[in-house]
Design a protein that fits this description.
The chain is built from four helices and 28 strands. It has 426 residues and is mostly beta strands. The N and C termini lie far apart (192 Å).
């Protein structure tokens, strides 16, 4: 090849290379955005083995604290993107990309746009007894936060807020742990747990509330005892009325058309009724006391009225001693006495003691009353005796004709009757 042809060929190759370089440069410029980063720069001549680094600018949207932050950035590190947007990141905060949780210090994959969501951790301060505990959480409810923090809550524990309380900010909550208690009632021993502060509250929680006159040991306002043992006593009171009969009295009244020594019931008696109101106290089914609140007469008794005859009638009777006329006949218990058995004393009227003299009860048979005693004969009431009472007659004898009497006998009171007649002789 001659020298002229070689020169022309060299010039052609140079022009072809230059044209190729010009074409490649225009394509690079068309792929780079205003804020994209290209290393080396587009106007830099490439050398054999050179490396080209291109970082595109991405659109970033960050949802945090109820606001949306928008920015453009070539960075892919979430922590730097938050810092660029002026969003602080606190311990416990969670960051999400495309719905998945991501670490703030792990680069995002290549993309033209990024959508990030920041979920703030909430501070929960738990007061349990004398101690308190503060922790951060991304849980949505209080119950979930406590569970994630390893705090066990028994169904009988007492929380100041419900477990489903949403966490939308810092939260203070008090936990009162429950403890085992035993409640003794008439039906047996009931074991349960309770976080109540007083005995009354614990009984109510256990479905055994005190009502009415019920009481507990310790009292309802007292705190739960150290041994957890509570006694609940059911109390009822009932008022009953106790009655008892009241006896009636017997009254007498004269009946003019009824013969002497005859009786008739003018009016029947009726028992009365006394009553008392008694309050009975019952504890656990057993009566423990009775208290009389009032006593009164519920029904007055009605007296029995017995009529006695006052009609004096003359009767006649044939006796071994002849016919007699009498106005009264009484069944009397007859005994006998004489001068010796009488201690040698005279009669009360001074009449010598002999057959025909009788000792009587002058409360019913006045001195001077004449009587006829079958088997004895006529007797005159002229003496008294210490043992002669009511329907008793002591028949007198002398020491020479004494006959012993100890028997019931009908004594006839001879006519005429005295001016004053004892209508009733017991």
């Amino acid at each position: 090849m001659n020298t002229g042809r070689a020169f022309i060929l060299s010039i052609a190759l140079i022009l072809a290379g230059a044209l190729s370089i010009g074409i490649w440069s225009s394509k690079l410029v068309s792929l780079i955005a205003e804020k994209d980063s290209l290393v080396p720069t587009p106007d830099h001549w490439l050398r054999d083995g050179a490396t080209i680094a291109l970082d595109h600018v991405a659109q970033v949207n960050i949802l945090a604290d109820g606001k949306t932050y928008r920015l453009t950035s070539r960075g892919k590190l979430p922590a730097n993107l938050l810092l660029q947007a002026g969003i602080p990141l606190f311990p416990g905060d969670l960051l999400y990309f495309e719905g998945n949780e991501i670490a703030p210090d792990v680069e995002l994959p290549d993309a033209q746009a990024y959508a990030l969501q920041l979920k703030r951790a909430r501070l929960v301060t738990l007061l349990a007894g004398p101690a308190s505990k503060t922790f951060s959480t991304n849980a949505t409810t209080l119950g979930q936060a406590l569970w994630e923090a390893g705090v066990s809550v028994n169904a009988k524990d007492k929380l100041s807020l419900p477990l489903d309380t949403p966490l939308v900010g810092p939260l203070d909550v008090t936990l009162q742990p429950s403890r085992e208690i035993a409640i003794r009632t008439a039906s047996g021993l009931h074991k349960t747990r309770s976080a109540a502060e007083t005995v009354g509250e614990a009984l109510a929680e256990a479905g055994l509330p005190l009502q009415g006159l019920d009481f507990s040991s310790p009292g309802a306002e007292a705190g739960i005892p150290p041994d957890g043992l509570i006694r609940a006593v059911r109390v009822t009171e009932e008022v009953i009325v106790e009655t008892s009969p009241l006896p009636f009295e017997t009254e007498t009244q004269p009946v003019a058309d009824l013969e002497l020594d005859q009786q008739s019931v003018v009016e029947e008696g009726r028992y009365g009724l006394s009553a008392r109101r008694v309050r009975v106290r019952i504890e656990d089914g057993a009566e423990v006391s009775r208290q009389v609140e009032a006593e009164y007469i519920a029904q007055e008794p009605q007296s029995r009225i017995l009529g006695y005859g006052t009609q004096v009638v003359q009767y006649t009777l044939d006796t071994p001693d002849g016919q007699i006329k009498y106005w009264r006949a009484l069944n009397m218990y007859a005994v006998s006495y004489n001068h010796t058995s009488n201690g040698g004393t005279g009669t009360a009227t001074g009449i010598p003691l002999a057959k025909g003299v009788a000792a009587v009860d002058i409360n019913y048979i006045p001195f001077g009353t004449k009587m006829y005693v079958p088997g004895y004969g006529t007797a005159l009431a002229a003496d008294v005796g210490g043992g002669v009472k009511g329907r008793m007659i002591d028949l007198g004898y002398s020491d020479f004709d004494y006959v012993s009497w100890h028997q019931w006998v009908t004594v006839y009171f001879l006519w005429p009757p005295p001016e004053t007649i004892p209508w009733i002789i017991p």
